[in-house]
Amino acid sequence: MATTYIHFTEEQKDQARHTDLRSFLLGQGEKVERSGSEYKWNHGGEKITIRGNLWFNQYEPDSGGGDAIAFAREFYGLDFPEAVKFLLEQQGVVILPQKDVPAKEKKPFALPAKNGDMRRVYAYLLKARFLDREVVNAFVRAGLLYEDAEYHNAVFVGVDENGIARHAHKRGTYLDSGFKGNVDSSNPDYSFHYIGKSNRLYVFEAPIDMLSYISLHKENWQEHSYVALCSTATYGAIHILKTNPQIDTIITCLDHDSAGIEGNYRLKEEILRLGAYTVSAEQPRFKDWNEGLKSEHGIKPLPGTEHPGLVRMKTLCQELAIVFTGDRCPKYPLDELKEQYQKLRQLSMKRPRDIIMQSSEMAGIAFLLGQKQFASLEKSYTVQQYEKILFRLYAPHHDKIGYKARIAEIGERLEEIGQAFQKNEILSESAQMEQIKNTLSLAVDCLRLETYVEREQMEMQRRESSCQTESSPMAMQQ
């Protein structure tokens, strides 16, 4: 029997799943209140705890909670595809209609049948991918890598704590094959990994990236732990941390492109919610770690690409620090910020220049207020130091929300700052530094709004240019 089916890529489902619920609710006109490091949302008298893309109903501790998709299903009455579509559309992602297709039944997990030898896999991994033979042999001997019988794919196996296979990732071995994918019903908690005895965990997007990095850093590699997420989802890494308490240092090693860079930020944010971990990013010189191996063997590598949001934000933070460092803060900065915010709320996307000017004005006032707060702690910084402080507060994976949600987010942050000033409490230096971080985050939120409007304008111009080209006499003749 046919049913309406919407196809989503794994990246789209992951993007929906990691929707920031605070920003989402603000965009829906809901009231969200801070409670320590979390947020509370009042739903019919019940307090729902919000942590990034996760939620928890304290009135139903056994069943009330989950990620953003579960949130949309619980509180908006949607099924899974409707929830994914709804969350993506709130982020500006256009979902095209799909034809009806037969519904599929979920298959139980099973490893593909093994081939009698591994000649094709070895040829691919050693000659085309330049992986180190000893490294490949180690994973083959452990039963974590083999060649399947039907298609001769490389199969990367993920096992549970008892050594039972729970996940498998397949990679085509023909030179012109781009095939890759997880075996049906693979458990993402157990994606391809290796557990060592040290306190370090290295995190990668794909198994070949992981083996490439080990090939490039062979010395004592068995001491450490490694995991390939087999996507940019975070389940595999999070599960390893929960089941291996000796690990307290995580190095995220995702691809040198926009998706990988956002994945590094998202993974760090999720890990820090779990506890006091040390998280840093190690970026490949080229697009990924295997391109580095290719470069060492005389093959021209694919270059890495920078995240456009990071590039633009770095410039805006630099300009803000240059213009306002050392300037005098207004006598009543909070009153000015509130006045400017009311003006900002009245603007629409039909007036992009006014929005940019208004958000830039607010960013400057918030920055000056932050400087004033630093001065009260007898701390002063150079232009370059302020630029770094501001830039570190920007996380590009939070860019995927709409205009209304951004405006609401700025208002919520401003209200929070105002409430903190009204308390007039004697705070410890660490608490005061947290307040300063919040003030400067308001400046970054305003700069983020600038970049959003700029991108929307560029996209509108691109579409208009495309329409003009398609309707030109020459195009019509063709």
UniProtKB/TrEMBL annotation:
<dbReference type="Pfam" id="PF13154">
    <property type="entry name" value="DUF3991"/>
</dbReference>
<protein>
    <submittedName>
        <fullName>DUF3991 domain-containing protein</fullName>
    </submittedName>
</protein>
<feature type="domain" description="DUF3991">
    <location>
        <begin position="123"/>
        <end position="197"/>
    </location>
</feature>
<dbReference type="InterPro" id="IPR025054">
    <property type="entry name" value="DUF3991"/>
</dbReference>
<dbReference type="Pfam" id="PF13155">
    <property type="entry name" value="Toprim_2"/>
</dbReference>
